[in-house]
Amino acid sequence: MGLLVDGRWQDRGYDTESSRGRFERSQSQWRDWITRDGKAGEGRERGFKAEPGRYHLYVSLACPWAHRTLIFRVLKRLEAVISVSVVHHLMLENGWTFLAEDGATGDTLYGLDFLHQIYTKADPGYSGRVTVPVLWDKKEQTIVSNESSEIIRMLNSAFNEWGDATVDFYPQSLRAEIDEVNAEVYSAVNNGVYRAGFATSQAAYEEAFGDLFAELDRLEARLSRQRYLVGDHITEADWRLFTTLVRFDPVYVGHFKCNLKRIADYPNLSNYLRDLYQVPGVAPTVDMRHIKAHYYASHLNINPTGIIPLGPEIDHLAAHDRDRFTKAA
Ligand SMILES: N[C@@H](CCC(=O)N[C@@H](CS)C(=O)NCC(=O)O)C(=O)O
Q1: In terms of domains, do 217 and 120 share one?
Q2: Are 128 and 187 in a shared domain?
Q3: What pTM was computed for the model?
């Protein structure tokens, strides 16, 4: 694990010393927008026009943030419109690499060795973390965005001419509620598992752990009343929660010490997880081998032997009971 400083790669972990053992996620630095007409996003200078074949995603199948973008690409039917490269699941001294083994594709655009070279191709003086997902513009040869929450909004609305315009995961009328749910889920759950797992003080771990399970209890109650997080239609909020839930029992319970309960112990959350998993197109985006191997073998500060546990056994294709809401409606 490392980062770029003035364009030079340095092998360094997260600094938790200055924050009393707390893991604090850095802000993503590339925040431009692809729009239908090519106008720059609000407060931005560079504009990017939606065009088929122009853009590319660099993802890891292990990463929950990158996973969101893959789900949107599939469900918005953008596979032929936006191409993808998959990094290798191991992230060690060189960060994410393009070793083309075990389901990783290599860098299908330039044949580079490391993801950090994509960042320095876009900005030779870049300082910061080298994260997936990256939304890349093949025409301008630059990064449009490395912020998954914004990339999924672009995929949701900018490419409707070529994708499925009937699918809208961020409808105007639900935006305020979606944003509200996202904010809670982000800090306590999506980022919460990392705050627990990467904490280097007992107090920081316990704080994250408390926030996480309090929020899972609230979500369990919410999902006892309605099929999805925001009513009876799947929205962006559901996909953002899904990518954390699907990793929870196999990885976060053990590796990140989020072990008060498993998702399997929450009837509504576990049925909801199966419901989302069974949406056509979603299952192939879930690569449990990459997920487990990445976390357990890349974070050697947490798991020094790199041994990847074999369990648990989970059947995401088992029946779920979520139709009960639709039928009652
Ligand atoms: N805010 C970013 C976070 C992305 C992120 O942290 N990705 C992780 C993988 S799960 C990563 O690439 N980490 C490498 C690092 O921090 O050095 C987003 O949502 O896109």
Answers
A1: no
A2: no
A3: 0.97
